[in-house]
Amino acid sequence: MRERMRVLAIETSCDETAAAVYDSDQGLLAHQLYSQVAMHAQYGGVVPELASRDHVRKIIPLLDAALKQADTSRQELDGVAYTAGPGLIGALLVGAAVARSFALANGIPALGVHHLEGHLLAPMLEANPPEYPFVALLVSGGHTLLAEVAGLGEYRILGSTMDDAAGEAFDKTAKAMGLPYPGGPALAQLAERGTPGRFTFPRPMLDRPGLDFSFSGLKTAVVVTLRDLTLDDQTRADVARGFQDAVIATLAAKCARALDQTGVRTLVVAGGVGANRALRARLLELGEQRGVKVCYPRPEFCTDNAAMIAYAGCQRLLRGQHDDLSIRAMARWPIDTLTRPETFNPIS
Ligand code: KG4
Ligand code: ZN
What we know:
Layout (H helix, E strand, L loop, with lengths): L5 E6 L4 E8 L3 E9 L1 H5 L6 H22 L9 E7 L3 H18 L3 E5 H7 L12 E6 L4 E8 L2 E7 L5 H11 L6 H9 L24 H12 L5 H30 L3 E5 L6 H14 L2 E3 L3 H4 L4 H12 L30
Parallel strand pairs: 1-4, 4-5, 6-9, 9-10
Antiparallel strand pairs: 1-2, 2-3, 6-7, 7-8
Helix pairs in contact: 2-3, 4-11, 5-6, 5-7, 5-8, 6-8, 7-8, 8-9
């Protein structure tokens, strides 16, 4: 185990270009992010090919900006971490190629990091971070899962979604309601001034045992309700409120179940939907009721960012794990195939 390390990180798995510098002694020194949201908005969703091309344009200036913000020269870096998957393959390849080449040129190790491990560990960047073991609710645009986290690289999946991810359900429902892309945050904002209880949608999977999720039926229920409505501003807000309340009730109930099942006393909430104010408030309340510590990243570290990749990469690099000279990019990469960094064998 190395004593200390300063790591540069790059994240380009979807529609955000991001770079960060993390120091194991001094904490986060810099993080920079460029969102492509305005570019994709005219198409109503992320266009993968455009995403890749825009990453190419933005990554080097962002990397320079991060080093400048951290007041760090290349010679002071001890390693490079980058998101190797899961994500859009073309987008991932841009970050992976830049990170791997940068590491080679500067004679330092590189490591491909799992995007979801980054999300799971993001609360470690905050004051009063969680201690292992914890239960993690990971709710993003691409994934919804509950995991028991025993330590770095020790992830036991307790439940996941059978269809849409929670963020995807937010986005698709928002689209059906005629909200502009990106729909999730817009729907959440609308829900804040909606009347609770005017529309009650089904709480998916609550009547069944287990910790899996399903959101596509809820989305359909909203679409069917919308058909018979004249959508004035308040009605739209009330529908948004009904949808959001159903999602939050389901997520909170499954978190409670996971805490009961594992006996773990800490809950971590991460991923883009973790930025949702009402969800944060509900889960904090759940924690207070049960004497469970609830930890979140700040909202900007719930959505995609490079700070979380820098943290996760640094923990593994400190323990001696690193890649060979290959550029790693995987559109799919199941998180339960990750292992503890101590099992890394540089010879094999
Ligand atoms: O983690 P993330 O930035 O990207 C993925 O790895 O998927 O998550 C993005 C997702 C989107 O579906 C977005 O609509 C959702 O997170 N999201 C929200 C909020 N902010 C972002 N959903 C509900 N309420 C929010 N405030
Ligand atoms: Zn993400």
